[in-house]
Amino acid sequence: MPLSDFLDGLKDNPYFGAGFGLVGVGTALALARKGAQVGMVFFRRNYMITLEVPSRDKSYHWLLSWITKHARHTQHLSVETSYQAHESGRVHTQFDFHPSPGNHIIWYGRKWIRVERTREKQMVDLHTGTPWESVTFTALGRDRQIFFNILQEARELALKQEEGRTVMYTAMGGEWRPFGFPRRRRPLSSVVLERGVTDRIVQDVKDFIGNPRWYTDRGIPYRRGYLLYGPPGCGKSSFITALAGELGYSICLMSLSDRTLSDDRLNHLLSVAPQQSIILLEDVDAAFVSRELLPSENPLAFQGMGRLTFSGLLNSLDGVASSEARIVFMTTNYIERLDAALIRPGRVDLKQYIGHCSHYQLAQMFGRFYPETPHSDGDRFAQDALSVHPEISAAQVQGHFLLHKTDPQGAINNVREIKE
After folding, report:
1. Which of residues 180 and 300 earns the better pLDDT score?
2. I need a labelling partner for 143 at 20 to 30 A (CA). Which of 65, 204, 208, 351 fits?
3. Residue 11's Cα: distance from chain center in Å?
4. Prediction pTM value
């Protein structure tokens, strides 16, 4: 059969015609789909801009608060519960809502912005147990300025929320994270120390902060260490909190007894501490024992309760790899238990004893709690208190005043109840 006749026969065959039509339609759809994908990729690369922020970035929590403010109409939310225990024992609970994982649309800067919050179910932070997250912003155009504006606005919003407050940080894995609510700044005058002690420490810290060039010109590492020692309840930690409020600094609280703390992790945490912060190492005597004890008599003589070693702590404070522009406060109830190498100059530049209340402190505290009483009442309270209790801590005196909030005469008459 000639080829022309064979082709004419196929053309007239209805089954072949139908199959050829289906193939043509399928091919056309496949080409259209591929073209749409290529076109979308081209459009995204040339006419859309994207910003991804992982949860480990410091601005991540700022952006979550910013998204919460601008995505008010979203109906898909996640809750973050936090609480704060007041000195009175009352617990205040706060619920913060954030857009849940998924897609959210925000109108900002005369543009629609697509916000996608994703959560990796298979990957978690081994230190905190929380899954890894990220937030991706997508907007039309090629101008990056819109993302700079968002980041700047998120930062200013976070600073506004912390204005007039002291932020407490705690070590979580290899980073510092805010702990609880930012606390209202405690006035420096609310912590009454012995005459001249407050001025001495505050002046030293401010002189250090204001003269970085002095250290640089002389080749001296720009860091400062302080040790407050004395009986418990006498105001060491309270003073540091008030000092941070006076300076407008945050506090990075670290426990050297943490069993997960190693030499490398401590060195890293001290190096990445937030700017304008005080690093507080409380009760350092509880983490290390003096090296004067033999290791056979005391297995903890050369190492802490965790994987942190004594030499690792010393190197972190003033070793070659230690960071600069850093203020470290250490507290202890028993300075005699500390190794001399830990508190030598260079690691501890200023030591200050914070002891039991003196006559001056008792009179000043009485005047602060009962400002409308005559000065002589404060002196009488101090004299009576010291005649009955030679050693009184500030915490005990404050507790006594709280029992007589509106009765200064009762506080004087019942001074014997302070110890109880």
Report:
1. 180
2. 65
3. 78
4. 0.70
